[in-house]
């Protein structure tokens, strides 16, 4: 089916046009996402997310070149995903530098139950909101702004929670960082 007709029908809210677009572009968009993300599962998820977002798109009348539009949306989505992964990795590396900056002897982690118990003990020293901030920033990989929005507080409050939480956890040595990687 012709792209111009698909766009016209999408503008007229014809749901069949969405199916036509999906069938025509799914495979090429998947290949493009796989090329960018280097991961089949992530690529499929990216393409599905883009199509899900397009279900709510209302300005089809402004789309002049459907193929270019779809590629651009997917490309930007993949770049955002890669950027978020890079930020999460950098945060984890910063966290590891902070936790390992003192010289401590690494504990024996052969017993996973003991390590989990120690981890829960260490995390119990954090307030619930500080613990939630750690979870959002370090485990979910959210930016400070996104974590702040999720908790309904300011970006500076998130930074303060992280800084004070790290101070508390550092007082126990690098054990927490080692346990987190052991259990991951």
Can you describe this structure?
There is one protein chain. The chain has 184 residues and is mainly alpha-helical. The protein has two domains: 3-84, RNA polymerase sigma factor, region 2, helix turn helix motif (Rna Polymerase Sigma Factor, Chain: A), CATH 1.10.1740.10; 100-183, Winged helix-like DNA-binding domain superfamily/Winged helix DNA-binding domain (Arc Repressor Mutant, subunit A, Orthogonal Bundle). 76% of the residues lie in helices and 0% in strands. Helix 5 packs across helix 9, helix 6 crosses helix 8 (155-170) and helix 7 crosses helix 8. The radius of gyration is 23 Å and the shape is elongated. The termini are far apart.
Structural features:
single chain; 184 residues; mainly alpha; Rna Polymerase Sigma Factor, Chain: A; Arc Repressor Mutant, subunit A; 2 domains; 9 helices; 76% helix; elongated; disordered C terminus
Structural class: mainly alpha
For this structure, the CATH topology of the largest domain is Arc Repressor Mutant, subunit A
Number of β-strand runs: 0
* CATH hierarchy class name of the largest domain: Mainly Alpha
Task: Give the overall shape, derived from the CA principal axes.
Answer: elongated
Any idea what the radius of gyration is? 23 Å
The helix fraction, in percent, is over 70%
Low-confidence stretches: 179-184
Summed up, the domain count is: 2
CATH architecture of the largest domain, please? Orthogonal Bundle
**CATH homologous superfamily label of the largest domain:** Winged helix-like DNA-binding domain superfamily/Winged helix DNA-binding domain
Written as H for each helix and E for each strand, in order along the chain, the element string is: HHHHHHHHH
Round the mean pLDDT to the nearest integer and report it: 80
Summarize the main sheet: none
Keywords: Sigma factor, Transcription, Transcription regulation
Domain RNA polymerase sigma-70 region: 21-87
Organism: Chitinophaga niabensis
Pfam families: Sigma70_r2, Sigma70_r4_2
């Amino acid at each position: 089916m012709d792209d111009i007709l698909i766009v016209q029908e999408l503008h007229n809210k014809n749901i069949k046009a969405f199916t036509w677009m999906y069938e025509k572009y799914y495979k090429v968009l998947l290949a493009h996402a796989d090329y960018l993300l280097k991961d089949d599962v992530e690529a499929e998820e990216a393409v599905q997310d883009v199509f899900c977002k397009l279900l709510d798109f209302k300005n089809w009348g402004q789309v002049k070149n459907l193929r270019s539009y779809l590629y651009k949306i997917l490309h930007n989505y993949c770049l955002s995903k890669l950027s978020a992964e890079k930020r999460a990795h950098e945060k984890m590396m910063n966290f590891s530098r902070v936790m390992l900056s003192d010289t401590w002897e690494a504990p024996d982690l052969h017993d996973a139950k003991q390590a989990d118990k120690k981890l829960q003990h260490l995390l119990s020293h954090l307030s619930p909101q500080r613990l939630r901030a750690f979870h959002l920033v370090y485990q979910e990989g959210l930016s400070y702004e996104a974590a702040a929005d999720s908790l309904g507080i300011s970006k500076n409050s998130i930074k303060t929670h992280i800084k004070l939480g790290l101070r508390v956890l550092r007082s126990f040595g690098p054990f927490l960082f080692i346990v987190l990687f052991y259990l991951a």
